[in-house]
Specification:
disordered C terminus; elongated; 25 helices; mainly alpha; Na+/H+ antiporter like fold; 678 residues
Length: 678
């Protein structure tokens, strides 16, 4: 029961981290999760989860890297193979020797092999952490593909170097030739083994399908077990389980691209299941990291052999050295022209800075550090084991914080630096939020809410049209184009009335009233002032007519005739509006779509009002449906602008301004509806 409650608590913390990130989007989720983990471990409730590295790797690293292998761009991976290998192999081994000697010089109590072990475990970058931070920063695609490829490959090289360094510390024996040969065997064996096992599992699934077993649950279960089984088997043969699951993920993607036979339901279930699983595993990795930090800190800070300031200084110096070495390695490689790829030939200093600061350390570093044995071969304690783990945890935190602060600054585009381009960003974001609202309403549209949905969509199309007109230099031309379209729509109405007139399907009085209506509408389009005068004159005539009628004795037959004529006129106007909509649909193109949609929306709104006039008491139900749809549309706008901010498309100033506009429109609309309701 205690274990269940602990798991439940960890899941609640992961949910809280997303909730906090929604209100503090400039703080990366991994940092929030680490902080929550630290707070949880600091509470006096006796929570302690011992880090079991072998279990950690198979339970977390295997599925995460399998998922990354499935989603990494194979084309980009192949095109960038040279720079990826340069970072994943070359930089890792340079880091082991250079940083190893630095650690040995800084902390003489750590033997040289143990210093190499610490440098080796600090060499792999964390693709999960980089992905979490870069989700709100717009990093150029070639650079992102390079970072993903490096993160997938350097785990294996770093861990292999770490194992040999630890073995050398424990036994006191090391052979460079043997280590090099073992590395090749472990890496190539892991890649080949993972690919072969993935093919065998795919064949098994095909065999099951040929037996007629198309049960989605069975196929989904096999897919979920795949990374765990492959990692465990490959590690059992002392090969690279990390590279095996990456290879398996790539093989599964190749199979999925070539084979279109799996049911759509399986693809939907697979995508949804993996999305939830990866979200939970990512969160657990960083929460568990946070849970380990207090115990590691206590072990160091309470130990009289260690000076707290000195230890903190070691962390900062080693982190700075790691980043400086990474920067110099990248600059040197590009100056020498080693990575001969078209995508990365024209790197700027800013791009090199982005690649450098993205070298975040994460879960693999901490899990690897915890695999350090407690004792050497002769039974003596492993030298400064607690200090090595503490430095590893400290470097992880410092690189995460550094990336969180400097990556958004380095990746900032010129759009955020000039007022003109900031306005362009805001305008683009407004269009995207409006489109998101329209999409949400169209998804909810059905026979019961069709009229209300059309009304809401029309309102958003009108807002969209105003934005287009406001940002267009040819405003006068747009107004002329809109006038021309409206006149053509009115001509379509007149043509429909003319057909009825020739077929003698309407009486003279109705024809006169419709012609008068069309005349007023033409004036409204072409001569607003004259239309207003005519409108006020019509109001005066109607008022006088009602006043006269109040003195005339009521006649039920006359009232019935009047109601009947009004119904016929309404029905005719509805059909005229439909004729105009039909004409507009036939003549709408991609270039003039925004104008046509607004005018069609106005006609649909008119039809809806005529229908409500006939229904009478049902108008309250219509208003309620419209209110619900509006609420959904406003939420869709808010979700879209939040997503744009998290993806680095807009700045904090823009998101605040657009949220304020949404709030004002919502408040105005609610006030308007409350007035109509009363």
């Amino acid at each position: 029961m205690e274990f269940f409650l602990l798991v439940l608590l960890l899941l609640v913390i992961i949910g809280m981290s997303s909730f906090i990130n929604h209100f503090l989007p400039y703080i990366p989720v991994p940092l929030i999760q680490i902080t929550l983990g630290v707070l949880l471990a600091s509470l006096p409730i006796g929570i302690h989860i011992p880090m079991e590295p072998e279990l950690f790797f198979v339970l977390f690293i295997a599925p995460l890297l399998f998922h990354d292998g499935k989603h990494v761009s194979r084309q980009a991976l192949w095109k960038l193979r040279k720079p990826i290998l340069l970072l994943a192999l070359g930089l890792v081994f340079v880091t082991v020797f250079a940083i190893g000697y630095l650690i040995y010089w800084l902390i003489p109590t750590i033997p040289l092999p143990a210093a190499f072990a610490l440098a080796a475990i600090l060499s792999p970058t964390d693709v999960v952490a980089v992905g979490a931070i870069s989700s709100r920063v717009k990093i150029p695609k070639p650079i992102m593909h390079l970072l993903e490829g490096e993160g997938l490959m350097n785990d294996a090289s770093g861990l292999v170097a770490f194992k040999f360094a630890v073995a050398a510390t424990v036994t006191g024996v090391f052979s460079f030739a043997e280590a090099s040969w073992s590395f090749l065997v472990i890496a190539i064996g892991g890649l080949a083994g993972g690919a072969v096992l993935a093919v065998l599992i795919i064949r098994l699934k095909m065999f099951i399908r040929r037996l007629g077993m198309e049960d989605v649950m069975i196929h989904m279960l096999i897919q979920l077990l795949t990374p765990f089984v492959i990692f465990y088997i490959i590690e059992h043969f002392h090969l690279s389980g990390i590279l095996s699951v990456v290879a398996a993920g790539i093989v599964h993607t190749i199979y999925r691209d070539r084979d279109q036979s799996p049911a759509m339901q399986l693809q939907v279930v697979s995508q949804s299941t993996w999305t939830v699983l990866i979200y939970i595993l990512n969160g657990l990795v960083f929460v568990l990291l946070g849970l380990q930090i207090p115990s590691v800190m206590n072990e160091i800070f309470k130990n009289p052999l260690f000076n707290n300031w000195e230890v903190s200084k070691y962390i900062l110096i080693i982190t700075a050295a790691l980043l400086l070495l990474r920067f110099l390695w990248i600059c040197g490689a590009w100056l020498l022209g080693l990575p001969l790829t078209k995508q990365l030939t024209n790197l700027s200093i800013k791009d090199v800075g982005i690649i450098t600061i993205s070298g975040v350390r994460g879960a693999v570093t901490l899990a690897g550090a915890f695999t350090i044995p407690y004792v050497l071969a002769d039974g003596s304690p492993f030298p400064d084991r607690a200090l090595i783990i503490f430095i590893a945890a400290g470097v992880i935190l410092v690189t995460l914080v550094a990336a969180s602060i400097f990556l958004p600054i380095l990746a900032r585009t010129e759009k955020e630096n000039t007022e003109e381009l900031r306005k362009e960003m805001e305008r683009s974001a407004l269009f995207q939020t409006i489109d998101a609202a329209i999409r949400s309403i169209r998804e909810l549209m059905n026979d019961d809410n069709h009229e209300a949905a059309v009304s809401v969509i029309t309102t958003y199309n009108q807002i969209r049209n105003r934005l287009i007109n406001a940002g267009n230099e040819n405003t006068e031309q747009l107004k002329l184009a809109e006038t021309e379209i409206r006149m053509k729509a009115l001509d379509a109405e007149a043509e429909y009335v003319e057909k009825l007139k020739k077929a003698e399907k309407v009486d003279r009085e109705t024809i006169y009233l419709t012609e008068e209506h069309l005349h007023r509408m033409r004036l409204a389009v072409t001569n607003r002032m004259q239309y207003r005068r005519l409108f006020f004159w019509s109001l005066i005539k109607r008022g006088v007519h009602k006043l006269v009628q109040s003195f005339v004795p009521k006649n039920q037959e006359r009232l019935n005739n009047r109601h009947e004529k009004a119904k016929k006129l309404i029905k005719l106007k509805v059909n005229m509006a439909r004729a105009a909509i039909h004409f507009l649909k036939e003549h709408m193109t991609l270039e003039n779509e925004h104008l046509y949609l607004v005018i069609m929306g106005e006609y649909n709104e008119m039809i809806m009002k005529f229908k409500l006039a006939k229904k009478g008491s049902d108008s309250s139900q219509y208003i309620e449906i419209q209110r619900e749809l509006r609420a959904k549309a406003f939420q869709a706008e808010r979700d879209e602008i939040q997503n744009l901010y998290e993806e680095g498309e807009v700045t904090i100033d823009v998101i605040r301004k657009i949220r304020k506009q949404i709030n004002i429109r919502e408040a105005y609309w609610m006030e308007e509806k409350s007035v109509h309701a009363h």
